Amino acid sequence: PPGASAARGVSQGKVTAPMASPHAGNAPPGVDPEAFSWFQTVDADHSGFISVKELKQALVNNNWSSFNDETCLLMINMFDKTRSGRIDVYGFSALLRFIQQWRSLFQQYDRDQSGSISFSELQQAFSQMGYNLSPQFSQLLLARYAQRSPNPSIQLDRFIHICMQLQSLTDAFREKDTALVGNVRLSYEDFLTMVVTRML
Q: Number of folded domains in the chain?
């Protein structure tokens, strides 16, 4: 698929420009030439923008599965300054840096270097990130986000998705929990508003 060779570079923890582009030297100001070259490869329809579909075709997990649609959409929305559902070369360059940071964190928590995050690794990751979450909650996340198998684990795309949602919902909770006691009283509509404004 388009961008597959570029995706190999990302899955191995670095971004590579798989094909020499005649325009690679003409990267816009503030955009790394390597990121610009990769942008041109991923932009399969040469529109000057990356869509969710193009991003999904370019990004892979350590097990070579494509990033899921929800995570790609979440990341596109994060870097889409025009609210058009796609990103330009500046947004793409920022997104690559963002993925690299999450990949580094993922590799740090993947203690057995299996390429995925197990239940115990997820618990340790939450603890190190400052979340005080029960084993039951981690199990719930595994049931919701892991591929079905005897030993369920979380791939990079789902790890990014979970962490982004946790951070967003934690920020929403803290807006209500001004005394930082860990409990809030919410009306049903306040709860729905909190979730809807921070979810896809």
A: 1
d(C-alpha 195, C-alpha 166), whole Å: 11
Is residue 129 assigned to a domain?
Answer: yes
How does pLDDT run across 145-191, given as a tens digit for each residue? 998 888 899 999 999 999 998 988 888 888 888 888 888 888 999 88
User: Is the residue at 9 inside a domain?
Assistant: no
User: In angstroms, rounded to a whole number, what is the distance separating the alpha carbons of residues 126 and 119?
Assistant: 11
Q: What is the pTM of this model?
A: 0.78
Q: Is position 19 within any domain?
A: no
Q: How far apart are CA 111 and CA 47, in angstroms?
A: 41
- Domain holding 44: CATH number? 1.10.238.10
What backbone phi and psi angles, to 5 degrees, belong to 86? -150, 165
